[in-house]
Protein 1
Amino acid sequence: MLHSINPHTLKEVYSVEEFSKDDINKAIDKADDCFKSWRKRSFAERSTLLLAAAKELKQNKSEYALDITLEMGKPISQSISEVEKCAWVCEYYAEKAEQHLANKPIPTDAKESYVSYEPLGAVLAVMPWNYPFWQVFRFAAPALMAGNVGLLKHASNVMKSAANIEKVFQRAGFPEGCFSNLPISSGKVEDIIKNKKIKAVTLTGSKPAGSSVASIAGSEIKKSVLELGGSNALVVFADCNMEETIKTCVQARFQNTGQSCIAGKRLLLHTSIAEEFTNKFVKVVGELKSGDPMDSDTYIGPMARVDLAEELEQQLKQSVEQGAKILLGGNRKDAHFEPTVVDNVTTDMTIFKEETFGPLIGITVFETKEEAVNLVNQSDFGLGVSLFAENIEMVKELIPQFEDGAVFVNELVKSDPRLPFGGTKISGYGRELSMDGIQEFVNKKTVYIR
Ligand code: NAP
């Protein structure tokens, strides 16, 4: 059995029997059967269904958001926003898929030559709990519009949300087998990837999970996309708009109770403004409302599981032993972790080197632009970086020097259906969203007609 425990009340809210090997194989067969007809449907037909899914999400957002909050503790207002964002990505691909996948003519000495973009078949998605709806929809919307079919192995602690996502597609009228939820633990993933009917796999999650899934896919010569962890820096230059920057940095680090791959986890401040910025930043963080995630004005809920909060506590403890200084917070009760700000962080500390997946931020100071770039790039992760400055020309000169998959200026790193999303280094490879995302799971077929 797989169980969802409400991290606020610590009571079980859902449980489901795991699929047996036989159940899994039946689901894969059904997906493969569905693919045979689904791939032949026109973009217009697929688009009508995806728009129906968007409508379903919007109409019943409260129902879906409630289960997200009960299962993993996300403050309810943020759960509702998450469901709304899923409707957006469905609408985006319903409108844009045909354009993104139109044949690309390439003039050669042939009478006609072009690239066509054709679906691969059944794609397995291994997904995390932190945005239980969004992570799945940003895979599913483009994959289904491209003519693929999807199978979901969701995180074990959000199986109700996984079932709800399947329900969204059913209610929207998608054919049976087009999108299926597999209630299974991670031990069953290997056999699924090795099944001949599974053509590719995408994983959003941690490095160990990504490394394992990619190795198996590699040994089978199957395509994989990995969206892994991050330790984004928020780089604040002396000429920033301080009030705006503080607001943005607080949101960048503390939304979703700090449990976001693209959260700004390392705050890098220019020495000339460090003291003033830190004092004001600590004050704003101190005013964030923590508590019951079912309250509409709660901003910081519990972390998704007690063990995750314990892990964060351990990272904080180690960093303090290494010389970091707590300015705010630092305490934990069960899964609730106080919003915490830590100063005097240096590059050899746990909080700088590892991903901290909760409401904890470390401050490091720098003197020169070169030093700031080095600090950003010293991380093994490469998801994104935010730069805050009024001198945009200075910032633009720096952009090519960052090794990350995204640079945002005067804004938090965020995912947007219109822009590609993905990392470098141990943050993974491949891209989701935009045209790049829909072209990940297709056969880019070269056609040459003499
Ligand atoms: P996780 O432990 O890696 O779990 C993610 C998914 O992988 C779950 O479905 C999990 O199943 C499964 N899994 C775990 N180990 C596996 C294995 N050896 N083989 C196959 N599947 C396996 O990650 P998490 O702790 O839930 O999520 C947090 C991590 O995800 C963070 O590092 C975060 O930065 C990253 N993340 C990245 C992005 C991005 O877009 N780059 C977005 C969100 C989160 P079980 O639950 O059954 O173990």
Protein 2
Amino acid sequence: MTNLAQWLSQHAVDQKLASVVASMAAASVEIDQVLRRAPITGQIGVVGRTNIQGEAQKALDVISNDVVLKHLQDNPEVSILVSEELDEAVHFGTNGPYLVATDPLDGSSNLDVNVTVGTIFSVLDAAGGLLQKGSAQLAAGYAAYGPATNLVLTFGQDVTVFTLDLDGDWVLSKEGLRIAPASEEYAINTARERFWDAATKGYVAENVAGESGPAGKRYNMRWVGSMVADIHRILMRGGIFMYPLDSETMSKGGRLRLLYEANPMALLVTAAGGGATTGRQKILDLQPNDIHQRVPVILGSAEEVARVEAWYERG
Ligand code: P6P
């Protein structure tokens, strides 16, 4: 069996970049260990603070952020950290060539009910500054803490999956992951239908119409409420994830964050042959204006994403 270190070496990944990915992988192992014992150690629950997003910070949000911070500040190749849990970017004072943007624990509201959550990260050239397009990412990935703990990585071309073994080693479990171009599954929070725009309503209505409708096939709907869980399912068996701009999120630009949720997931899905759009623009082409900027996110199987884009083109 090939492990992460061997795979990175065999694929001649730049050693400094590989060390950044390895640091995030090591942080994810430590976070995995914390999560799996949290109900025993009592680390479930909120800390009575809100982050810049205005969301109640869970104890595990703060712990996970501290774990990532520890691993990255100990890596001389990383000079800047942008985190969902930190109002400002952290400058480590090194000349490290890389910037890491991360959501240390995405979906943490699901922890109390033992649903899959994850750590999402994006690696960029620090010289490019804090506000770079997603197309400039040098690597992106996530750890999914589920029945198995997976690490899903891309350096822009292929998508590779590792599974955490019982001895704490990341073992290669899938290479060259490709996302199914078509699908019969869509993921959207349907409780928000009253806020949706015409394009979202039109696309979902076609799916709900099933075999006798314009889509000509029966669809199923899945919404975990944990982006990493939904995206992992979509990468593994196809589908589309939608958090479109709606009348309620309009004022904030969307729900999900560009630098450390939308961009890394868009690079992964695109590298696997899928599509990633706001509905009107490719996510990877967006020019960020703030490190915590929110954007609409529609990504997944190419044919499904194209149908949504066609709805937006109708105006
Ligand atoms: P809603 C989790 O808080 C998150 O950021 C994503 O992981 C998830 O896809 C989304 O929000 C869920 O949002 O509005 O359905 O609770």
